[in-house]
Fold this protein.
Amino acid sequence: MSLRARSTQLLDAWARVWDQREDPVVLAVIRVLVASVLLFDFWWIAHLGIVDVLFTPQEGGGFPDVMSRDPVPELYRWFPSSPSTAWAAYGVLVGALVCFGAGFLTPVSGLVAALVSAQLAQVLPLGDRGIDTLLRNVLVVLSFSACGRRFGVDALLFGTRREAPAWPRHLLILQLSVVYFCAGIQKTALAWTPLGDLSALFLILQDPSIAAFRFDWLSKVYPVTQLATATTMVFEWSAGLVPLVYWFRYTRTRPGRLRAWFNTHRPLRGWVLLGAALHAGIALTMSLGIFPFAMLALYPALLHPDELQRLFGRQDRAPQPRREPDTLAS
């Protein structure tokens, strides 16, 4: 086969992977979960009384910004640098998230929430966490999906859709893989390795600014923290294989021992359960805000819509053949 023919074949295969269609029920579930997590986070900011501190520029009385703020956010080019503007933007953001979670004018409300959040993040970059950036990416992806046409007001107004492009879910899977893999390769401190006695999690849980409780007793079960540290590293490094697992499932009819092993042993199920357990552990032992809950809100993307409905004992429509056998049980 010539190079040109092979390239054409690969491009066609790539296009077919991203051009598949499926029920947007999984995307609708993610929409509700992500909106709920973000709404709780912004409610908590208001509960602490720091809306104007975080979202008002320094010249308007906000928190001093030690990082360069150039260019100035467009929000404060148009409106005064005052707490009232910050509260107005906050209200627009919360309103957009409510509409997004309810599936009302989903493309517009999702993009408005993402854009206003990005504007407020420019006011105090130090207050913008990595999870905030990730969730803004998710809002944009979901805004270009059919997530509002299931379990939402848009479904009532414009009709429920049982088939929609699957690429937003695939993109979220890729996003999860990149986040975890990059987190793994950036853990360069020796404490995360056997050279540092795998002491990272033990040391983290001794830090009162991170630990949710006092963990003075952990020295008595030190090997458990070593195992947890090693498990975390294995989990994050192995995230780079997740897209390969899905590719093997999509091409399961092709030969190859590695492909056959992955399709036979189905390691992705164990990887997902391990990730859920790690985030549950983080939520119980560390004060990291919405991070573990936001990550878990994206986990439904790893399920095919048919599997999600079977998981809850529902099958709204007769099973139809699909081109992508990418369920965790397949």
User: Anything to note?
Assistant: Confidence is low (pLDDT under 50) at residues 318-330.
